């Protein structure tokens, strides 16, 4: 039985996607949607930083300024 190759098996290539920050607001504790979104975006070639769920507004703003998503 053969297993299809995924992009995770490929050798690293030069970054050609966008820098993306995924998170949810302080009132949203869902985490699986963030993980799924992160994996999807990474498979599409984007650099993803996941700062998690229930992120206070001030921290979300600070992380956006620090990471400079494009």
UniProtKB/TrEMBL annotation:
Recorded GO MF terms: cobalamin binding; metal ion binding
Top-rank lineage group of the source organism: Bacteria
Gene3D superfamilies linked: Cobalamin-binding domain (3.40.50.280)
InterPro entries with a match to the protein in the record: Cobalamin-bd_sf
Protein name per UniProt: Methylaspartate mutase
Source organism: Streptomyces laurentii
Origin organism lineage: Bacteria, Bacillati, Actinomycetota, Actinomycetes, Kitasatosporales
